[in-house]
Amino acid sequence: MAAQPPSSAVRALQLELKKLTEEPVEGFVVNVPDESNLFEWDVAIFGPPGTLYEGGYFKAHMSFPPGYPYSPPTFRFLTKMWHPNIYESGDVCISILHPPVDDPQSGELPSERWNPTQNVRYV
Predict the structure, then answer these.
(1) Does residue 93 have an active-site annotation?
(2) How far is CA 97 from CA 3, 16, 56, in A?
């Protein structure tokens, strides 16, 4: 029998999804393809006007760990694109998506990394 995710993670994701539905972020659309699994979200991003990405439509995927909101989600672009913070695999590499551990070699301050007070809108 598979382990059930913590109810606190499910509740946090339910609240965030509800808020995004009621107060959408301009240029972003979020969809949960399987309502029985709130830990996997599909994201569509429309390229903002006045940028190199203007007119673009970019598909992405967010995965949330069972320890959410204490652990950060992962974010991967499914649409091929170039950006200095996006690996060839589509994985996004930004400080906010890194766990809040002390890593002197990264050059990031712990305050720049994920913390439980942040949410999907920060990403």
Answers:
(1) yes
(2) 25, 17, 24
